[in-house]
Design brief:
This protein is of the alpha/beta class and 253 residues long. The protein is built from 8 helices and 6 strands; from the N terminus they run βααβααβαβααββα. The structure holds farnesyl diphosphate.
Length: 253
Amino acid sequence: MPSASTLPKPPAALPGVPPGRMPRHVAIIMDGNGRWAQKRTWARIRGHRAGVRVVRETTEECARLGIGQLTLYAFSVENWKRPEREVSLLMRLLERYLVWERPTILENNLRFKAIGRLDKLPEGVRRELAETTRLSAANTGTTLCLALNYGGRAEIVDAARRIAEDAKAGRLDPARLDEAAVASYLYQPDMPEPDLLIRTGGEQRISNFLLWQISYAEIHVTPTLWPDFRAADLHAAIRDFASRERRFGGLGA
Ligand code: FPP
């Protein structure tokens, strides 16, 4: 996993935030779609639909700000426990998103990636994921990464299994295993560590998201429900991040 300092510095696109204080990787737990819909006595799926619009706006704003990567928690390994109808509507929404948003992804020079146990997703979703990933692979702008059927523990288990297989086959010397080597077995080996983790919807939890990668991330929780999250809320989170002193276990400047 490259350290944050190996990534190109984004431009100073947010007034009052010096370029060196901009996050290079923003990860978001998009929570509150269901509550947003229920407050209006609507079906929960309408909240997810409204959430898709916010995915688009947030992605475009991150691209405009020159942020290196945006990772969105779109479906967790635990989300299969939801009613079958909600799960299948979410999957359909995701498949349509991947088709509809493809031109926008390409026009914005975004590189699309997905992480998670993707092989367990419905065939249509896997097909559109593969297509968007392939078409955008040579792009050089912001990386948009969707975490789908994702769990932080599952990711570490999957990495551990592959590490054990490589050691057993003699391709890996266990004595040489270090943090960088472990990171190279994660779903997105070149993922820069998230600098800023945003959670909408007010809950103060990590919910099994990027457990390995967020070791030193700054956490920003906002009560705003995901469908109400706007560019101004993203800016507020970035300004909050920029005001923090990051010591990475040291004593600071
Ligand atoms: C949490 O809200 C949100 C999800 C489980 C799914 C997030 C999905 C989207 C934003 C739309 C689909 C995404 C893409 C990329 C097409 P919740 O339902 O748990 O809300 P609640 O806590 O209010 O019940």
